[in-house]
Records
---
Amino acid sequence: MDIKAILHRQLKLQREALLWKADGLSETDLRLPRTHTGTNLLGLIKHCLGVEYGYFIQSFGRPSELTVPEPDFDAEPNADFYATEDERASDLIQLYRDVAREVDSAIEEMDLAAAGRVPWWGDKSETTLGFVLVHTLGDITRHAGHADIVRESIDGHAGLHSGNTNLWEPDGGWDTHVLRLTGIAESFRER
């Protein structure tokens, strides 16, 4: 069992699930805040491309000719969670795919014990590819889950990816299912 290959495969699956959530949506739909904190699909994509680039390319001193947005976190602490007026969805999505190719090559070329340094971790900055791979997989998975909910709230598209939604519509359809669950929840008001 090759644990690096397993972790890498999961990272790829989560990345693709996140990117799939952007398919077929307008620039406006990708940018509109969908939660109280402003979460939006394009912001999640921008954040995740920066996460992967920072952890796998910068932290391991890998060469890259890509130009990745470098938000000014002192001026705007959430700057990596939204696209600016001059950043286009198609460009950020393509940039994430380009970053992914570099990240995939980096992971394939290094072993889990490869030494790296994550500058923003302060005095705990020394690390390994194995630790960064697990850490980043958790981050990307979390945000792919956010994207699941955000996309479902936009147009009902849900699931893992277009070929496997991993959801089975209940008898009577989703509206009936939601009404039934609402009834169960409401019954607790009277208890």
---
Amino acid sequence: MKSTSLPKVSSALCSVALLAMSVHAQETDATIKAYAAGYKAAFTCSATFNATKSPSQIAEHELKGIYPLIADQVKALPDAKIDIQNKRVSVFYSDTMPPRVSQWREHLGCVQLPVGATIKSTVEYLPAIELTSPARNDNAPWKTLNPVNTSSGNAKLDAVVKAAFKGDTFNTNYGENAFTTAVLIATPDQIITEQYIDGYTHKTSQRTWSVAKSIAATVIGAAVEQDIIDVKAPAPIEEWQTAGDPRGNITLENLLQMASGLDSNRAGNRTDRLYIGGGRVQDTSSRTAVEATPGTRWKYANNDTLLAMRALRGAMKNDQAYLEFPFKSVMHKIGMLDTKPETDWGGDFILSSQVWTTSRDMARLGILYLNNGVWNGERILPENWTEYVSAPAPAQPLNDSTPGYGAQFWLYNERFPELPNDAFAARGNRGQHLMIIPSKNLIIIRRGYDPAKPGGFQLHTFTKDVLDALAD
């Protein structure tokens, strides 16, 4: 890798952060305070009921190093009130408004109530499903019963993994602003090494952030395999079906490739009114205008992923079947039994970010791609889906020091010549990474709580060192 590549990446991230902050220049103080309370309620709820984390773990990891816009407000708010019996979290932030509330549901995790809503008037209407999870079988077809936090038997690899955890602060050998919580390296046959920080185990769940986008692509792939939806066809989004609406020409493929051409503010990765403001996908994502010809401009945008999933909902025409589909068609089939894909209060999945999962469940996702979409002899994804999501989209990120882009996956091809040309990855905020390398039959997972500032974990450098260690 060129010695100048790391500063370039950091500079690019800095630019995105500055743009993201500028997007919110018009937010009122009252709105920002409601956002902060929503953030605290949502993360406390998910970390408590999805991940069984303690209040001290939540304070140390979920509520530190967060968005500058709300960081001080979150710190100043009173402690969240955790209702264990009703699996509900409330955060008071105003003398005149109801508290912000996040409610847990079986399978679907936590959902925020809209700003101003009361528990009595809203909770009974929240989307919910009843499913029976399959029995766990950690041995087939992927052997996962070996102990964790043990040596890999490869001294060089152990040293590389140890370096990823180095230090008690936001600093490792792989990033000046990086705090690693887990590393898992595996093949379809077995885990090579699996390491966690103190207090975490293979059962500890974290938010995936934008790794969820790759889960969304996988769910849509299963729908393509079942002939439910066609990526080449216009996305069947209800709000775009008025005659003459140019958005009706946007294809599902445009959305998967981050090339919708839709306006998504300057920083398309910031969707605060939905993420922490209790909004709905149908109100925040599907009502923006076209500003570029679809398919000709790449722009990273949460809305494109959200709309891709809303298109699947439109194609299915059955809201209950839609809510059950990710479980029945993907996650339960491949053993992702500790994964909670969360929704808004209108029943749309927020698969641009809001999924909580363990490192082992994330590994199962990667191994599904190594297996070319087949699990335990059953085809889950189309035969060419691994190739499809990892093929360069027609429109690409302009900064050639960042990875390229396929369909909801990042591509480490000619832009990173020291890595295998077929390497591709799911990546998320705060350092959630799943690297998939078909030519090496290998997946590499790194989870973390990198602070929201330039820098962070350098996945490409870590991947190179892991491959070098395994080659010796």
---
Amino acid sequence: MYNEIMDAVTRKLDALFPEITVYTNKVEQGLKEPCFFVGFLDPSETPLLGTRYFRSTGIYIQYLPGEDEQRTRELNRVLGVLMESMEYLSLADGTLIRGTKRSGEFKEKVLTFFVNYDRFGRRTGKEMESMNQITMN
């Protein structure tokens, strides 16, 4: 599931910004700016009743704008596009998931965009047997 979400995010960024490189791994050498870095922030899962669960998948997208005289305006433009366009993602199987808690942060001339793609799910497998009858005195 995590790779599917990561793939959907990178596909969306490629469609929105075809001229900008998207990295999902740490780059030791040869970093080409402008670029995006994409990663997960503390994914978690909470069990619910029976076989159901709630999975929270936080994503960060960092944008390094490169050398630009209008750097602040470029960061603002990219933040606006991400806020509007990252609300819905389409997974490879066509499932739409909605991004919540979208926010941006500017630090040291870098934009970091945060979004959560949370989902409820159900585990497949053997269901627990329920009691057939009970006798009380």
---
Amino acid sequence: MELEKLRADMVAAMKAKDKPRKEAISSLVSAAKKVAIDEGCRDDIKPELVDRVILKELKTVKEQIDTCPDSRADLKAEYQFRYDVISEYAPKQMTAEEVKAYIQEKFADAVATKNKGLIMKSVMADMKGKADGKLINQIVAELCK
């Protein structure tokens, strides 16, 4: 995801006077800028960095939804709206079947050792941002049985 696309969508939401959407997109822009500054690439923000930030924000909002008490339906609805907006920009994640096939194809030699630590080390380096880490962990554990 390009940072400029996020900025353009944020401006469009401002012009449409859609405050909740503008705030959700604005949080993505500011988080991407902060990470870029922390990593020392303030002027040249790469799409991979923006994708990484979007996935992190998506995970954070998902945790907010999960931990929000049922008595606070208004807050839960606000979090769900943010989650929906952020997921529009999130890069497509691999499904469980795709992850399993990918691991068995690319890392057949590591899977044959049944060493979960070795498999996770090589798989996570290659699949970072392509699939959820928990999902990868479950599949690797299943393959090591």
